[in-house]
Amino acid sequence: MATILAHLEIKPGMESQWEAIMSDMVRETFEKEARVLRYEYFKGQKPLHYYCLLSFEDKWAFYLHQASDYHEGHDFEGVLANVELEYLDPVQGANALPATENPPLPDDASDTLRNTEALFPVLIPKWWVSRA
User: Fold this and answer.
1) Could you give the CA distance from residue 8 to residue 110 in angstroms, rounded to a whole number?
2) Helix axes 59-66, 111-119, angle to 10 degrees
3) CATH code of residue 87
4) CB distance 88 to 2 below 8 Å
5) 116 phi and psi, to 5 degrees?
6) How would you classify the pairing of strands 80-88 and 49-56?
7) Cβ atoms of residues 59 and 123 within 8 Å
8) Which of 7, 79, 84, 128 is spaced 20 to 30 Å from 46 by Cα?
9) Per-residue b or e along 64-74, where b marks 16 or more CB atoms closer than 10 Å to that residue's CB
């Protein structure tokens, strides 16, 4: 499983356009992806800051989401000032989501999966392993 918190800063004056993109992305994702567990956007307290909580059955589902036509079809560069992805791991007993894992790509992985993994590698801190 892969859970990600995206820290998103948008460009000034782009709030309405960004929120329209978010709405479309959520609709498309839930209509077309069977392996998405959570996909939610939030406004932050700081102006122009948003967050997205994404959770997928596995990292392959996340990578296919990132490479999807509807994801690639939006003008993210035109509205986003900064993006930081933070992988999360659920606290056992305090969250129903399964652990975030980073299995190796299979030998027959597509170029799309290989390229997307290079862009969005799953980073599991050592301290998580000791807390499992």
Assistant:
1) 29
2) 90
3) 3.30.70.100
4) no
5) -70, -35
6) unpaired
7) no
8) 128
9) bbbbbeeeeeb
Instruction: Specify the pairing of strand 80-88 against strand 2-10.
Output: antiparallel
H or E element: which one contains 44? none
pLDDT exceeds cutoff 80 at 130: no
What would the two tokens of residue 107 be? 């030998």
Above 80 in pLDDT, residue 71? Answer: no
Tell me, what's the pLDDT at 131? Answer: 62
User: Which residue range(s) make up the domain with 28?
Assistant: 2-129
CA 47: distance to chain centroid? 21
How many angstroms separate the CA atoms of 76 and 101, rounded?
27
Number of structural domains (the chain) is 1
Closest to 22 measured CA to CA, from 43, 2, 1, 46: 43
